[in-house]
Give the backbone structure.
Amino acid sequence: MFTPVLTAQSLTKTYGSTVALAGVSLQIGVAEAVAVMGASGSGKTTLLHCLAGIITPDNGTVTLHAPQGPQQVHQLPPEGRARLRRDHYGFVFQQGLLLPELTAVENVALPLLLGGTERRAAEAEAARWLHHLGLAGMEDRRPGQLSGGQAQRVAVARAQVTGPAVVFADEPTGALDSRTSAQVMQALLDTTVGAGRSLVVVTHDEQVAAGCHRVVRLRDGLVVQEHAGGARPAEVVA
Ligand SMILES: Nc1ncnc2c1ncn2[C@@H]1O[C@H](COP(=O)(O)OP(=O)(O)OP(=O)(O)O)[C@@H](O)[C@H]1O
């Protein structure tokens, strides 16, 4: 049975005369991995940012089906969207966006500290995630002392540490070779859909999309194709 975690309806967004989204409707299911693909400029990042409450659409609605009731993401003021992102979402970007002056464990602990968790507990939980992602022993390294794949796994750990309902990833493997890319994508899938969470991943990489349940293709700000990816729910849902 398909249970939606996120519902977007008729999203539009323009920047001056550029139409980034021309009316996109999309549902993301609980424990579903959805790849968003399309040519450069087709609106992928704009869609991800609308779903994630980073920006608001000009028109249309985004509803997060949170345990405490539906949240109208598009109507929230900036501070409400910031809270929603902190409480319900995780993020992984192409370059990881780790803070260079913090160690791996401090980077991963950061979302918990911002949410009010005490430092010792936050760092213990962060270390647990690093261990889970095969990074035991790297806790005290700074991002500059990690390989690209290791840094991305730290970013995956940071996205998961608060137990978000949905993880958004924008080209999470874009800077990696294909073998490392496959490992990072597997880590993302294991820690999201493998734990009952949802994943929305913007990618140009067909291999990454093949690991998802569903692939949505955009052109000129519209969904022009939607088809199953390579993953079957029964294989990845714990
Ligand atoms: N902040 C902005 N200001 C002006 N135009 C923007 C802005 N953000 C996006 N755009 C424009 O909106 C359109 C869609 O951009 P978007 O980044 O969503 O595309 P994309 O599919 O993610 O592209 P890419 O694959 O190159 O990252 C593009 O024409 C882009 O130039």
Observations:
- The pocket of adenosine-5'-triphosphate is lined by residues 15, 18, 20, 38, 40-46 (CB under 6 Å).
- The domain at 4-97+166-236 is CATH 3.40.50.300 (Rossmann fold).
- The beta strands are 4-15, 18-29, 33-38, 59-66, 69-72, 89-93, 166-170, 198-202, 214-219, 222-228.
- The longest strand covers residues 4-15.
